[in-house]
Amino acid sequence: MAARRKSTKSRSTVRKPRSKATKARAVLVENVQQVWLAGMGAIARAQKEGPAAFQDAVAEGLKLLNRSRTQTEKVIRDAFETAQSTMQTRVEGVRDQAGETWDNLEALFQNRVHKALRQIGVPNGDEIRLLTRRVEELYDAVQDLSGKPVKTAVRRPAAKRRRTAARKRR
Questions:
Q1: Is residue 128 part of a domain?
Q2: Residue 124 lies in domain
C-alpha cells in the first residue's frame, strides 16, 4: 500500500504542470488573436478615416512646430541677452582697466619729467610761486625805502620783439 500512495502523489504533481502549461498556451493564443484583431481594426479605421486623420495630424504637427519655434526663439533671445550683458560687463571692465593703466602711465611720465627737470635745476611751480611772492615783497620794500613808485619794465618775449621790430621796418 505504501507504494500506491507514492505513485498517486507523483501522478497528481505531474498533471498540474501540464494543465498550467495548457492554460498558458490558451491565454497566449487568445492575446495574440486580440492583438491581431486590434491591428486589423486599426487598419480598417485608418482606411475609413484616413484623409481626415491625416489632416488632423498635419494640423497638430503645425501647432507643435509653432510652439517649439516660439520656445526656441525665447531661449535664443534669452541666451543672446545674457551673452550681450556679459560682453558689456567685460568691455566695461577692460575699459576701466585701460583707464587705470593710462592714469598710471601718465603719473609715471609726470614723475620722470619732474625728476629730470629737478636734475637740470628747473624750479617747480611751488618754487616759482615762492620766488614771485618774495619778489613782490622786495618790490614793496624798495618802494617804501625810496618813497616814489618804481617803474617796472615789462619785458616782452624775444619772438614778440622781433615781430614788432619787423612791422616797424615795413
A1: yes
A2: 59-145
The verdict on pTM exceeding 0.85 is no
Residue 86 has pLDDT above 60, yes or no: yes
CA atoms within 13 A on the CB side of 84: 6
| 37, 71: one domain | no
Domain count across the chain = 2
With respect to residue 42, please indicate whether it lies within any of the assigned structural domains. Answer: yes
C-alpha cell of residue 114: 619732474
Q: Are 150 and 143 in contact (CB under 8 A)?
A: yes
Per the model's pLDDT, the better-predicted residue between 36 and 7 turns out to be 36
Q: Tell me: the pLDDT tens digits for 94-141?
A: 999 999 999 999 999 999 998 998 899 888 888 899 999 999 999 999
Do 44 and 71 fall within a single domain?
no
**104 grid coordinates:** 598710471
Q: Do 16 and 78 belong together in one domain?
A: no
What pLDDT is recorded for position 94?
93
